[in-house]
Amino acid sequence: MRVPDDLLSHLIGPTPYGSAWLWTAVVLVVVLFAWYTTVFVLTAGHRRFRDLPVLGAAHGELIRRRAARAVRAIGNRYRAGELEPASAGAAMSRELRSFLHAVTGMPAEYLQVETMAVGPLASATPILFELNDVQFNHRSTIDVGAVGDAAEELIREWT
Fold this sequence. Notes:
Layout: H1 5-12, H2 19-43, H3 47-51, H4 53-79, H5 85-104, H6 113-116, H7 125-136, H8 144-157
Helix pairs in contact: 4-5, 4-8, 5-7, 5-8, 7-8
């Protein structure tokens, strides 16, 4: 018995996929891996990334921009009347201390201001003294907006 030629095409199976699909998948996987690696490296707070020349500079700049933007936002909320002086001072102090911890590795969140006045964090102590006064002294005459501007300037100029 002889099989007609038109039925023979159904016995062979489907044609294989094109090689373009394979290369598209490989490129997408490589791009995805590079994306996740970049995000991890730039947002990690590990000291080893700060020591790398190019990545350390990019990581420091990312932290600096985020902290300055956060302090500016707190200052704007204070100027708009959304925050009381004590709340604004506490939030700015928290952001500044978090920034100092991220760029120096010192536990600035847990240190007293008097302790910071002696070490590498000494340039930040006048601003932190003023923020503490605003936060804990309800009769303080310190302008929170001006202190916020000074904190933002300190963050931008930190080396």
